[in-house]
Specification:
This protein has 276 residues and is α/β, with parallel strands linked by helices. The chain is built from nine helices and ten strands. The strands form two sheets. Strands 8-7-6-5-4-3-10-9 form an eight-stranded parallel β-sheet. A two-stranded antiparallel sheet has the order 1-2. The structure holds pterin-6-yl-methyl-monophosphate (PMM).
Length: 276
């Protein structure tokens, strides 16, 4: 079989991994709040694991461009019951949040991984929470907040600037005591990026992030997929998302964050088998 690769969150990254998106929000990017109710969200999370997801990413705050922030208490009320049930069922759970209090509560509830779209920049206490729990963390690049990020998509060299800004976030994380081997990086496609900039980052994925760290990519159903495929409806972008996801793997990604777990897992397995 294959040589074992680097490990992250207990996963052997010699095999590409799939993270299923479980947005427990009434207004998420593209699932229209289907998982709004706790029970439905729990059922959906277990279904993703049956379909082959390695990680279930649970989030309660929409990061849709222009979205209003919600208080951490409301975020926790949405996600903690879901995280508790999934973790009790041995699901590897990540918590998608920018709030330190929510990170701490989610880790106590059984989440294993922190996924912060702000790269631990939004909440001054976030890095300390991750460091004290010594948990795996996804550090994503963005600028501003979901409310302001679209106006901040100005770069002279998007690849070099995203890499440099991610490097600064990594340095801050490590200064706070987070160990390098806990960190996965993410170029943050669609966050303070135009569709064209997201495409440029994906084409040059390894150069878009600091070297020697595993890479997660979230591109499922995003706007640049719509642009490249001329498909206005986010819920009809599976084919384009899968094509772009496999391309991301070929450019060095280790984990894909996706809505459509079953189809993506099948595609990834075939891609991986053919690539060996
Ligand atoms: N995208 C969204 C939310 N969280 N987390 C990471 N690490 N990377 C992403 O690209 C990312 C994320 C927004 O997409 P959604 O609302 O469809 O989940």
């Amino acid at each position: 079989m294959t040589n074992p690769g680097p490990r992250w969150a207990g996963l052997d990254l010699a095999t590409p991994r799939v993270m299923g998106i479980l947005n427990v929000t009434p207004d998420s990017f593209s699932d229209g709040g289907r998982h709004g109710a706790t029970d439905a969200a729990i059922t959906a999370g277990f279904k993703m694991v049956e379909e082959g997801a390695d990680i279930v990413d649970v989030g309660g705050e929409s990061t849709r461009p222009g979205a209003d922030p919600i208080p951490p208490e409301a975020e926790q009320a949405r996600i903690l019951p879901v995280i508790r049930e999934l973790a009790a069922g041995s699901v590897l759970v990540s918590v998608d949040t920018r709030h330190a209090a929510t990170m701490a509560a989610a880790l106590d509830a059984g989440a294993a991984i922190v996924n912060d779209v702000s790269g631990l920049a939004h909440d001054p206490d976030a890095a300390a929470v991750v460091a004290s729990h010594d948990c795996p963390v996804v550090i994503m690049h963005m600028r501003g907040t979901p409310a302001t990020m679209n106006a901040l998509a100005e770069y002279r060299d998007v690849v070099a600037e995203v890499r440099a800004e991610l490097r600064a976030r990594l340095n801050a994380a490590m200064a706070a005591g987070i160990r390098a081997e806990r960190i996965m990086v993410d170029p943050g496609l669609g966050f303070a990026k135009t569709a064209e900039q997201s495409v440029a980052l994906l084409r040059d994925l390894r150069a878009a992030v600091p070297p020697a760290l595993p890479i997660l990519v979230g591109l499922s159903r995003k706007r640049f997929i719509g642009m490249l495929s001329a498909e206005a409806r986010a819920d009809r972008r599976l084919g384009g998302s899968l094509a772009a996801g496999l391309f991301a793997l070929s450019r060095g990604a280790s984990v894909l964050r996706v809505h459509d777990v079953r189809e993506t897992v099948q595609g990834v397995r075939v891609w991986h088998a053919l690539s060996m």
